[in-house]
Specification:
By secondary structure, the protein is mainly beta. The chain contains one helix and five strands, in the order E-E-H-E-E-E. It binds zinc ion.
Length: 49
């Protein structure tokens, strides 16, 4: 089972999750499925691992 982390979008403030191996500390932008914003994990309003 892939590890995931929860992230809170800094734009619409909704939570979604992403694969840790792909997006955590990778400098790769996350894409919010609610508002379409793109942002790095460091820019997230909140991270829950
Ligand atoms: Zn959003």
């Amino acid at each position: 089972m892939a590890r995931i982390f929860w992230v809170k979008c800094p734009h619409c403030h909704k939570r979604f999750y992403a694969a840790t191996v792909d997006f955590r500390h990778k400098g790769r932008k996350l894409w919010c499925p609610f508002c379409g914003a793109e942002f790095l994990d460091d820019e997230a309003e909140e991270i829950t691992e």
